[in-house]
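Weekly sync notes, structure subgroup
Attendees: PM, AL, DS (notes)

Item 1: joint prediction request from the bench team. They want all two components modeled as one assembly rather than separately. Inputs as received:
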Amino acid sequence: MNKTIRKLAYPYYGWLYLLAIVPIAIMLVLVFFDIEGIGFSEARYTFRNFALFLEPSTLEAFGNSFLFATTATLVSAVLGYIVAYQVFRSRFRNKFIILTLFILPMWSNMLLRTEALGNIMERHNIFTDLLGIPGGFNLRGTGLAVLIGLVITYLPFMILPIYTALEKIDPSLEEAALDLGVTEMRKFWKVVFPLSIKGVITGCIMVFLPCLSGFAIPEILGNGNIMLIGNIIEQSFRNMSYNLGSLLAITILFFIFGSLMIVNKVDKEGGTLI
Amino acid sequence: MIEYSKATLEEYGYKDRRFLKKVYRISTKVLVVAVIFLMYLPVLTIALQSFNSSSELSSFGSFTFKWYGQIFRHPMLASAIQNTAIVSLTSTILATVLGTFIAMGIYYLFPKAKQQILLLNNIPILNADIVTGISLMLVFSLLLPVFPYIFGLPTLILAHLFFTLPYVILSVLPKLGEVDPNLMDAAADLGLKPIKSLVKVMVPAVKAGIFSGMLLAFTMSVDDFVVSYYTTGNGYDNLSIWIYGSIGRKSLTPSVYAFSTLLTLGTALVLLAVNLLSKRKVRNK
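Output from the run, pasted for the record:
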């Protein structure tokens, strides 16, 4: 009987190979050619695309991406852990409501939320007008604005895995630790934190990757002043330069596969990913 | 009688941290409230903007409902909403049904094959949206010679199915582990064919997982911008793509804010109702 049921998974192999692995192969091929779009009629074999890595604008975009993604991940990890831990410790045990609370903002369109955030970052905005206070400074267009935008947008992806990991900890372990005479502080660092590290790792990956590769938030909140890798990929594909875009996408893929390996190691069932 | 001085608690090594604890408790509470407030700040701004009679973004004219009335009168917005609804509903339903059965298939795989497919299954979740979008666009453009009109609705649904399926699978899989394995054997003993017993026995047993997977899939699908941006065609805009274009042209109508507010409120009410209903059911049992 299990044999029949097992067959249900086989088409999914094909689907994943076709839509996830084949395109990577296509991109790997595109990297070595010099063509417009993906017409192979005038394809020429070349290594010229790799010169892209020597361009200062690309290097700057890579630097920016890492700076923003790392900072945003660290800030959200600290904030996310505190929030997840407090919610976990509160007597509030209704998981459904907690999930709803953190998922609900996602029901407004991401771009619309970013645009709204951008609007209230301007010197004169709807809140200064309503409250009658003179506008202070213009945050929009600065790096800080992009950072705040990234943190606010991706924080739920940090909070939820950490909360899930915390919830799975057996409460008797904590009681045992207290029985053995440790202080609350040591109990946290020796028992609770190590057991929740899985959630922290997953959360960090879920925040780091979209921050590294996104292009809409830096574009809307940075007013085009701040270029990340995502923006350069987007521009390459818009200019029909698929080769350069593929090259950068492949570069990002290295990080993604690295993350995939980490997730596979710490969490085989993928239980903290959602 | 000799008066011995009494040892104080401090001399036994007790450190009075009551004050610090209080500071810690209050500051973390303030922080949590502040973070949640920040997360909702954009949503609040959107709501405020939707009641603003002036379409200026920097000043509040007076309180009005007029933008709500104009949501479906704006032709571009109305069609974008319609497209989003069609794409998200179709892909969510497909992902829920297919994902549930795929998850069951995966559950009965041998451990090694199971680990392999789960690794592949994580790719759409972890992959950068822009890489997913470009990848799918490349595959779909290979199909162009066979299906010349594929770009638009069909590609959008396939793309959304691609990145929502893993969420359903990951929600259903852990619930399958909790089901009593004897149930399937009992169904087989009673003469049910394997597929039928899946539908009759396993699906009801993992209902909760299927529901949360469906909810996640729909949320991801409605909120997606980047993947849709690369896989659509023929001017088939969903809400995200249309908003991105409007932000670029600086021509965003306040009716979008009205629609977004309605959607958020509606979702909140539905989720609350579901929560209350499920609670009542538990109590009745």
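Discussion: Chain B has twelve helices and no strands.
Action: AL to compare against the crosslinking data before next sync.
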